[in-house]
Amino acid sequence: MKQVSFKIICLIVWACIAVFSGFSDDFAVSLESRVLESFNGDSDAPYVWKTDTSRFITTGFPRLNYVEAWPVSAFGNNRGAGTSTIRSFGIHGRFDRRGYNWIDVYPVLANDRDENPYEIPIPGRVQNIDMWVWGANLRYYIEIYLRDHRGVIHTLHLGQINYPGWRNLRVNVPTSIPQSRRVLPSYAGLTFVKFRIWTQPVERVDNFFIYFKQLKILTDVFENLFDGSDLADPENVERLWASN
Hints:
Largest sheet: 6 strands, antiparallel
Distance between the termini: 70 Å
Number of domains: 1
CATH class: Mainly Beta
Helix content: 10-25%
Structural class: mainly beta
Strand content: 35-45%
Mean pLDDT: 87
Number of strands: 12
C-alpha cells in the first residue's frame, strides 16, 4: 500500500513539473530600469510640461521653471568642470483658498503649437514607477494617471510629500491593470497621462514649491517569440500591407 501511495505521489510531482515546464515561457521576464523623463529641461526634449488647475488658483500661478538643483543621493554633490548641467523641474504654486485644490502636470509635444496633451508610451509591461520629489513638509500628495489599451484611465497614489527635502517616491502598478490582450498582438502597453498634485484643507496653500526629478520605471520587456511573430507586430504589418 505504501509503495502504491509513493508511486502516486511521484506521478503527481512529475505531472506538475511537466505542466510548469510547458508554460515556462509565459513566466519568463526581462526586467529593465528605464528613465521615462529626466526633467532636465534639455532643448532637444521631445515634449514640454504644461499645467491645469482647480478654480481657486491665484492669477499668474502656477509658475514653472527648471532650476540647477538635484537630489544628492541620486546624482552626487560635486559637479566639476566638463560635466553636463543637472536641473530639476520646479512648480511654484499659490491658491486663494484652502481646500482640495489640485494642479495637473501633463506633457505636450514640443512642436505642437496647439499644445494638445500628449500621452507618453510606457515600454514593456511596467511593474513599478518611481520619481524623486522635493517636498516642503506640506500635507500634499501626488497621483499618477495611466491609460490602458481600452482607454480606461487608472489613478495610482504615488505618495505624500509631507517631508523635508528630496525623497524617492515609488508605487507598484497592480496586476489588475491590463497590459496584454488574449488575441494577437498580445502586447498592450500603458501610457502616462499626467501627475496631479493635491492640497488638503488642513494645509496652507498661499505659497509653495515642489520639484520633480527623473521619472523612472521598472518594466518587463520580454516578448514570447513564435513562428510568425513578425505578423503580430503592428509596424511590420503596416509596412507589409502598404507595399500593396
